[in-house]
Design a protein that fits this description.
The complex is a heterodimer of chains A (749) and B (261).
Chain A: H1 13-18, E1 28-36, E2 41-45, E3 58-61, E4 66-70, E5 88-92, E6 99-103, H2 114-126, E7 128-132, H3 150-172, H4 178-198, H5 204-225, H6 233-248, H7 266-278, H8 282-309, H9 312-322, H10 337-356, H11 361-375, H12 379-399, H13 409-424, H14 429-449, H15 464-491, H16 496-512, H17 521-545, H18 574-598, H19 622-634, E8 640-642, H20 645-653, E9 658-660, H21 664-668, H22 674-683, E10 687-691, H23 720-724, E11 733-737, E12 741-745
Chain B: H1 3-22, H2 25-48, H3 58-82, H4 89-117, H5 134-166, E1 172-175, E2 186-194, E3 203-208, E4 214-220, E5 228-235, E6 240-246, E7 254-258
Antiparallel strand pairs in B: 1-2, 2-5, 3-4, 3-6, 6-7
Helix pairs in contact in B: 1-2, 1-4, 2-3, 2-4, 3-4
Biased composition (Basic and acidic residues) (chain A): 1-14
Transmembrane segments (chain A): 149-170, 176-195, 202-221, 284-306, 327-351, 363-392, 404-424, 464-485, 497-518, 530-551
Keywords (chain A): Membrane, Transmembrane, Transmembrane helix
């Protein structure tokens, strides 16, 4: 994915990217470029013997004015000795252009291996390598472990964390300025890091610290939303799964709140293990585990891209671009089983890269370990991992000659492990995934077939401003995607990882159409983008860091879009670089804003605050939790309890009862009729939890209940009549009342 | 892994295990964090990727350590459970510690083997450099400290604010599912109240039958935690409404309804 395919063996990314002075005893030479400030002239002195200046096949920028040109080792007999003048080349930069053109001698024989042959082919057509050298002042001597400006940038970013904390507090106390502070804080947390990474002046250590620091700060934003307890239903479900392990010492214990999670114990084991080892409560242990897993995931993403590109800038930009995925800040860093699986998804991808580039069998072992960890942690991530490994293998098979059939081993192992786990352990996951698959199919059918809107309906239109921000960001990504695609096609690029990323990027755009499918669209698109956003982030990083031309110049034949890009990799400098940094920062910040508005929590609940009906985190308060604790103390575990979204979430977790979710019709009925009695009988409902605040306002997410029969059609809150009818039913007992939440026992005692 | 490094790692592992097993939270917390996130991964890393080799870079090692540690926690726990083990503090401590010690031994053994087969003179260790220069103090340590303090301060304050906002007194009246009707045709209700403030009292409970007639009354005296519980005997064939009144309020503060049987 880097400047050209090279073996990763024996070179750490730090060495590859941050030790320009390390002239290794191979074909690599280091050419320091000396720029005369007065006349824009750049003199590049080629060191070494003339025999080593035969053909340039590798160029690498390292964040300063040094250009590394890797030269092939032509057979001594065949190598054309260049003239002495070639050893000292003087070039002049053209006005308005930071491009330096170096004419190189004709390529040697194409016998130095595939990688060399590819580059030689380029050069043999043109004999010109275009290297754009930074014209800006030297950024200073870089140390391999130097942190550069990262500490100060992160300090600035931390002020954004403080601002968002203030905004959250303002939200809890319903102050007017809170939303403004929230957005300013989000931008301050994010944009300075993006700006620094885009400047391409950061080395490996600095980029890594920036990326991990940003991930830590953004995790703080997630944690501070609800720092004292889990409030999101899925987090509560995994809290219960973890608690069951700490209480019983057993795995695979029944969890009524989320039955399929029982057979994917990765996250629960991490949480339970940490809780037992440290003595911390499960909630605290879960927060730590989710945070560490989130950081590990980002770390692996950085490592994988760095290893593939040898460019810390590209690795950093890919990571910050991924940070604009819709679910990155919440779903992918919550205490959910996907959060535990994602690090091993990326670890597997990284280890696959290392294995395929000559790392040896130990990396294949890591691939298998990653597959197993992903599989025992989360079903969808395991499927995505199989698809990813298959994509990587197929692109390699398609592009490499002779065909490397061994590349099929990882997807074969993934298929066997995933199929074995689901076939022998987690059989119930098939029926569990059936419903969301059907919803997705219905949404796609609605999108392409014009079918009438169902549950994923379009009654609640996504706000225009939100659509505009998201659309603009997506458009930017699409432009970058198309530019890279054009560049790769015309270059006849044969890098397997770049092609795999391009295919994955196409899958991102295909899946992202769901974003515009009404109120449920952003969630569907967000869940898909957890995986497809990885390749599109890499594509965006390639486009930005390598300055792929969006609108190419016309060639000598007058062709613009079919003009062959200049060989080599362009590194923009000067005003053009500045412009790209500003534009890039704006684009990625725009993507981040789009992700915050279209991701989770929804715009109506971006800030924590007072109770809102059926609004997930915003609906969990002391009244609901107290009612759930009463259930846990007084009702049998087998009791079937129904209620709104929040009531069911709390009852099934803190309450430890068997939840019944499809009770909407019982609430919407203005009077109790035999039809309601029949529903109670069919669903075997024992108790109903009725929160009278459901009558205060309509739900922000357009549904009070899961499988709400009125989803998307709710125009007014539930009435007193609807909520109060249970008091008048002869066989119904009200056994709990805290002034807000009431619990009814259905049927005679 | 040289002997000193192996010894330190093994000693740290034993100390962490002892702290986890026998120590109070102040020592079990760091010990547990080390066993969960650091030590097993560090030892496995050293065992698989020999130091000095260019197998993996610094960033990769930094991410491998917690990744492999969590692998031990998850797959170790899964393996232990599959052979009939019980997952508790002791068993998980043993899984992590034993894995760490074995991996440390492997790493040490591999280094020994490599040393025996390597006739070349040992690489000269560069002279130790000053770890924290004044320049580095200003450029790296100071801003990072500032960042950590800002983030930690924001976190602590946010936590306190969230707890304060959440911490609302919830007053409830409840009854356990009533028992069967006795031979006299009555049922015993176990009624409980919580979150009652004495200052808002006196509290009084009144229960009413089908006809609207008052069947009984009782003064409710909450304890220091604001809780009260008591038994009420009511007719089994009547629908009973139990009202809790606060102070001199005319309307019920909380209400229960018990269906007839």
């Amino acid at each position: 994915m880097g400047d050209q395919p090279t073996s990763d063996k024996d070179r750490t990314p730090e060495e590859a990217a941050a030790e320009p002075a390390d002239a290794r005893p191979d074909e690599t030479v280091v050419i320091p470029a000396v720029k005369k400030p007065a006349d824009d002239t750049v003199i590049i002195r080629l060191p070494g013997s003339p025999a080593k200046t035969g053909t340039a096949t590798k160029k690498k920028t390292v964040g300063d004015d040094t250009v590394i040109i890797r030269l092939p080792s032509p057979p001594k007999s065949a190598a054309a000795k260049p003239k002495a003048a070639n050893a000292l080349t003087t070039v002049r930069k053209q006005a308005g252009d930071d491009t330096v053109v170096i004419r190189l001698p004709q390529a040697a024989k194409k016998s130095a291996g595939r990688a060399v042959a590819v580059a030689v082919e380029k050069i043999s057509r043109d004999e010109t390598v275009v290297i754009r050298l930074p014209a800006e002042p030297e950024p200073g001597k870089t140390r391999p472990a130097g942190l550069g400006w990262a500490p100060w940038v992160l300090a600035l970013s931390s002020f954004g964390v403080v601002l968002v904390a203030l905004a959250y507090a303002g939200g809890r106390h319903e102050t007017a300025w809170a939303m403004t502070a929230y957005w300013i804080g989000q931008v301050i947390v994010f944009s300075p890091v993006v700006f620094r990474l885009l400047s391409r002046l950061a080395g490996v250590a600095e980029s890594f610290v920036l990326v991990m620091g940003l991930a830590a700060n953004q995790y703080m934003l997630k944690w501070m939303y609800s720092p004292d307890q889990f409030r999101f239903p899925d987090e509560l479900q995994h809290w219960l799964a973890t608690t069951l392990i700490t209480e019983s010492g057993d795995l695979f214990r029944q969890n009524n709140a989320l039955p399929p999670a029982v057979h994917f114990p990765g996250l629960a084991e991490m949480g339970a293990g940490l809780s037992l080892l440290t003595g911390l409560p499960v909630t605290a242990a879960g927060i730590i585990v989710a945070g560490v897993a989130h950081l590990i995931f980002v770390g692996w993403l950085f490592a994988a891209v760095l290893r593939a590109s040898h460019s810390p800038a590209m690795a950093g930009v890919a990571c910050v671009t991924y940070a604009t995925a819709m679910h990155y800040l919440f779903f992918n860093s919550m205490f959910l089983y996907a959060t535990a699986a994602l690090p091993y998804f990326m670890l597997t991808v990284w280890a696959h890269r290392r294995w395929r580039t000559g790392g040896g069998p130990k990396f294949l072992a890591l691939v298998v370990t990653g597959i197993v960890m992903t599989t025992v942690s989360h079903h969808v991530t395991a499927f995505a991992l199989f698809a990813t490994l298959l994509l990587l293998s197929l692109t390699e098979l398609a592009l490499e000659r002779p065909r490397p059939w061994a590349t099929l081993i990882p997807p074969a192992v993934a298929l066997a492990v995933v199929a074995g786990w689901i076939g022998f352990v987690a059989r119930d996951v098939i029926s569990y995934l059936e419903a969301p698959v059907q919803r997705l199919a219905a949404a796609l059918n609605q999108m392409f077939g014009g079918a009438a809107g169902g549950e994923a309906g379009t009654a609640d239109a996504v706000p225009l401003l939100q659509l505009a921000v998201q659309g603009l960001g997506l458009l930017g990504l699409l432009v970058l995607f198309l530019a890279v695609a054009r560049d790769m096609i015309l270059r006849r690029d044969r890098d397997t990882w770049r092609w795999a990323a391009l295919v994955g990027g196409a899958a991102f755009f295909a899946g992202n159409g769901a974003r515009f499918l009404g109120s449920g669209g952003p969630e569907i698109a967000g869940r898909l983008s957890t995986f497809t956003y990885v390749p599109i982030s890499i594509i965006a990083a390639i486009a930005i860091v390598h300055a792929v031309q969006i609108v190419p110049a016309r060639d000598e034949n007058g062709r613009r879009w079919l003009s062959v890009p200049p060989p080599g990799v362009a590194v923009t400098t000067g005003r053009r670089l500045s412009r790209q940094v500003y534009v890039g920062t704006t684009l990625i910040t725009l993507l981040m804003i789009g992700a915050r508005t279209g991701g989770w929590p929804p715009v109506s609940a971006l800030l924590p605050g007072p109770y809102m009906p059926a609004s997930y985190e915003r609906s969990v308060d002391a009244f609901g939790v107290a009612a759930a604790h009463w259930q846990e103390a007084n009702l049998p575990r087998t009791a079937r309890v129904g209620g709104d979204i929040t009531a069911v979430a709390l009852s099934s977790t803190y309450g430890r009862i068997d939840p019944v979710r499809e009770v909407g019709e019982l609430f919407y009925a203005n009077a109790w009729t035999p039809a309601e009695t029949e529903i109670v009988r069919q669903l075997a409902i024992d108790y109903l939890v009725v929160d009278h605040r459901l009558g205060d306002r309509v739900p922000a997410d357009n549904a009070y209940f899961q499988s709400d029969p009125m989803a998307g059609r709710i125009t007014e809150p539930l009435s007193d009549e609807q909520l109060g009818k249970f008091d008048d039913l002869e066989p119904v007992s009200r056994l709990y009342d805290n002034g807000t939440v009431r619990i009814y026992r259905l049927g005679r005692p | 892994m040289n002997p000193v490094r192996a010894g330190v790692l093994a000693g740290l592992t034993v100390a962490a295990a002892v702290a986890v097993e026998f120590g109070p939270l102040a020592v079990s917390l760091p010990g547990g964090l080390l066993l969960a996130f650091v030590l097993p991964g560090l030892a496995l890393n050293e065992a698989v990727f020999r130091p000095g080799r260019r197998d993996v870079g610094l960033t990769e090692r930094a991410v491998l350590v917690p990744s492999l540690s969590l692998v031990v926690l998850v797959l170790g726990g899964l393996g232990l459970w599959s052979v009939g083990g019980h997952l508790n503090r002791t068993s998980w401590t043993l899984v992590c510690a034993v894995t760490t010690l074995i991996a440390t031994g492997v790493a040490y053994y591999r280094t020994l083997r490599a040393g025996e087969s390597d006739d070349s003179p040992p690489a000269t260790t560069p002279a130790p450099t000053k770890l924290v220069s004044q320049e580095r103090l200003i450029r790296d340590v100071l801003p990072l400290t500032l960042a950590v303090l800002l983030v930690a301060g924001a976190g602590v304050w946010s936590y306190a604010d969230s707890v304060d906002t959440y911490d609302v007194a919830v007053s409830s009246l409840s009854a356990a599912p009533p028992g069967p009707v006795d031979t006299a045709g009555n049922r015993v209700l176990q009624v409980s109240a919580s979150g009652l403030k004495s200052i808002d009292g006196p509290w009084r409970m009144v229960w009413i039958g089908d006809s609207g007639a008052q069947l009984g009354t009782r003064d409710v005296a909450p304890d220091g935690d604001g809780a009260w519980t008591g038994q009420v005997t009511v007719p089994g064939d009547e629908r009973i409404v139990v009202n809790l009144f606060r102070g001199g309020d005319a309307t019920a503060f909380r209400t229960l309804i018990i269906a007839s049987q």
